């Protein structure tokens, strides 16, 4: 029976949502293949169980203390040992920092096709056609992998996850791997986040641009984001001006996001920003310039001063 590996990712001891999207994509790709979830790092059986409930047929927890601090080098070595044993026809990663770093290394070692940043799939098995944005989101490319094993990275928040079924059963095995120390993280890893919500997986993002004019205004955006159950993001203009941390930057050289709702406040809509958020399901733009480019991609536009509009939105949401 052919196999597809779905690579899960852990964050703060929980599975990142994109892990479930890798399973869903694997199932859509070939519903007759065995879907094997691979969890690297500080995984335990509850993670394996969750992957099986989400649609995987079995789970492999890859164990080695060095994997507790993920590096592309040790993840690649660990995954290659699983791949050599399992001989999958497909491998699905999240299009995340780690997926973007590890997948090309594995593709290189296997001399296999890598289809990156996939947002949807049509057809099955060898006939499957994967859609991915190109030219900073200006166009979409439909592509097929032609090698024995094909690798795919999936853009978070684009593939509908399968309904969880807690009655699903499957083997969970622990695989010890041998790793050669190619690189060690010698200092503590300090993660910069705006809130507990991961920007690339957030359902609601309130994003500020240079038009917010100060770091203090960011607190107003944060309040709006929290009322909507979301988090804050930014344009590079806002980051360059020192209004917020670069960890929040969305765009071509920042994070790529696909929330259900993206509210752009004082952002002009430069192509490099749009590249990171144009796939958002609903885009709302607040800008005082009616000619601003952001309105050309917005579903709803408010032409006005954000310092008047946002407090009104906050007030309204507090009352509802
Ligand atoms: P501006 O273009 O200055 O726009 C500010 C907007 O705020 C204006 O439209 C204005 O009308 C509006 N405004 C002002 N005051 C108010 C108010 N009171 N109420 C309402 N609206 C108001 N940019 C990114 O964002 N992400 C990237 O990843 C990125 N990568 C890049 C990579 C390269 C190689 C290059 C060259 C550029 C990149 N940029 C990126 C920069 C990009 O080109 C733009 O310069 C940047 O996006 C502009 O940010 P902004 O829209 O916040 O600022």
Structural class: alpha/beta
- Count of DSSP E strands? 17
Q: Please tell me the overall pLDDT.
A: 94
If you compute it from the alpha carbons, what radius of gyration comes out, rounded to the nearest whole angstrom?
A: 21 Å
* Low-pLDDT ranges: none
Order of helices and strands: EEEHEHEHEHEEEEEEEHEHEHEEH
Order of strands in the sheet with most strands? 7-11-6-1-4-5-12
- What is the general shape? globular
What fraction of residues sit in β-strands? 25-35%
User: Helix count?
Assistant: 8
Ends apart, CA distance between termini: 54 Å
Bound molecules: flavin-adenine dinucleotide
Largest sheet: 7 strands, parallel
Briefly characterize the structure:
The protein has 320 residues and is of the alpha/beta class. The protein is built from 8 helices and 17 strands. Helices cover 28% and strands 26% of the residues.
Features:
electron transfer activity, binds flavin-adenine dinucleotide, ETF_a/b_N, 28% helix, FAD, alpha/beta, globular, 8 helices, flavin adenine dinucleotide binding, seven-stranded parallel β-sheet, 26% strand, electron transport, 320 residues, five-stranded parallel β-sheet
Structural overview:
With about 325 residues, this protein is of the alpha/beta class. Helices cover about 30% and strands about 25% of the residues. The chain has helices at about 15-30, 45-55, 70-85, 95-110, 215-225, 235-240, 270-275, 305-320, and strands spanning about 5-10, 10, 15, 35-40, 60-65, 90-95, 115-120, 120, 130-135, 140-145, 150-155, 170-175, 205-210, 230-235, 260-265, 280-285, 300-305. It has a 7-stranded parallel beta sheet with strand order 7-11-6-1-4-5-12, sandwiched between helices. The protein has a 5-stranded parallel beta sheet with strand order 14-13-15-16-17. The radius of gyration is 21 Å and the shape is globular. The model has no long low-confidence stretch (mean pLDDT about 95). It binds flavin-adenine dinucleotide. Flavin-adenine dinucleotide binds near residues 267 and 268.
């Amino acid at each position: 029976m052919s196999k597809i590996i779905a690579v899960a990712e852990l964050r703060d001891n929980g599975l990142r949502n994109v892990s479930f999207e890798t399973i869903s994509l694997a199932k859509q790709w070939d519903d007759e293949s065995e879907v094997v979830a691979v969890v690297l790092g500080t995984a335990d059986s509850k993670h394996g169980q969750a992957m099986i409930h989400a649609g995987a047929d079995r789970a492999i927890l890859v164990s080695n203390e060095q994997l507790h601090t993920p590096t592309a080098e040790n993840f690649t070595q660990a995954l290659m040992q699983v791949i050599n044993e399992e001989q999958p026809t497909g491998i699905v990663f999240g299009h995340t920092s780690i997926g973007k770093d590890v997948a090309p290394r594995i593709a290189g070692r296997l001399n296999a096709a890598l289809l990156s940043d996939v947002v949807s799939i049509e057809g099955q098995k060898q006939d499957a056609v994967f859609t991915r944005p190109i030219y900073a989101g200006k166009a979409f490319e439909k592509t097929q992998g032609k090698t024995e094993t094909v690798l795919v990275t999936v853009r978070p928040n684009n593939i509908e996850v399968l309904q969880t079924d807690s009655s699903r059963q499957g083997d969970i095995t622990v695989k010890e791997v041998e790793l050669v120390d190619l690189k060690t993280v010698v200092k503590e890893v300090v993660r910069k986040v705006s809130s507990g919500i991961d920007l690339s997986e957030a359902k609601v993002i309130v994003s500020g641009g240079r038009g917010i004019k100060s770091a203090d205004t960011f607190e107003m955006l944060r309040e709006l984001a929290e009322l909507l159950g979301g988090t804050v993001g930014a344009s590079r203009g806002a980051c360059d001006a020192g209004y917020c941390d670069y960890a929040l930057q969305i765009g071509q050289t920042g994070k790529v996001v696909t929330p259900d709702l993206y509210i752009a406040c004082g952002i002009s809509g430069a192509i490099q920003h749009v590249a990171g958020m144009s796939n958002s399901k609903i885009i709302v733009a607040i800008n005082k310039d009616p000619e601003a480019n952001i309105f050309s991609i917005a579903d709803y536009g408010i032409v006005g001063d954000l310092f008047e509009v946002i407090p009104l939105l906050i007030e309204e949401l507090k009352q509802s």
